[in-house]
Write a structure and sequence with these properties.
With about 180 residues, the chain is mostly helical. It contains ten helices and no strands.
């Protein structure tokens, strides 16, 4: 059954080995009436005439799924399409994530309510939880998207102060901290 799937995938342009298909589908439930086959892939099942596809890390795939379609190379676009075809849930997560990232980058506060509604009603539990958490902080989030002000500079100074304080732990009192903060080396 897996071998048939592997052969069909190769006809569609898949250049991976049999074992990668076997590893991907081995834990799937069997269709009704199907008998389990051998638990190990047959030795030497890989076709050597096909080029080997480079493996991608989860971070690389995540980045690929969050990039605009027009920015992808032909290889990346086909890889992304194949991943989304194999996992409709991943395709939905990619779409929702990409729209959220774009909404934040472009500061589109008007789209926030629509996105929250779609995320709360989607089939992915992770997005429903994320949307409920954002909904609790709706006022702060809409202000962050619509206002031009940011507290990034203040947070940076607080982080710097905490770093210096931890560096000096047990060595001196506030007078040395004041000197290091006001007159950095």
């Amino acid at each position: 059954m897996i071998k048939t799937l592997w052969l069909e995938l190769q006809q569609l342009g898949f250049s991976g080995c049999y074992k990668s298909v076997w590893n991907f589908v081995r834990d799937w439930p069997l269709p009704t009436g199907a008998q389990p086959s051998a638990s190990q892939p047959p030795a030497g099942a890989r076709k050597t005439s096909l080029p080997r596809v480079s493996k991608r890390s989860p971070w690389q795939v995540t980045r690929l799924l969050l990039r605009p379609q027009e920015d992808l190379s032909e290889t990346d676009a086909s890889y992304r399409e194949a991943v989304c075809r194999l996992s409709p849930k991943l395709a939905l997560a990619s779409t929702l994530s990409y729209r959220f990232v774009q909404m934040v980058r472009e500061r589109k506060c008007k789209e926030l309510a629509t996105w929250l509604h779609e995320a709360k009603t989607c089939s992915l539990e992770e997005f429903r939880r994320f949307a409920r958490g954002l909904e609790k902080e709706y006022d702060a989030l809409s202000a962050a998207l619509s206002e031009q002000w940011s507290n990034g500079q203040v947070e940076g100074q607080i982080t710097r102060l905490k770093f210096l304080k931890r560096q000096m732990y047990g060595r001196a009192k506030i007078d040395l901290l004041r000197l290091r903060m006001l007159h950095p080396p």
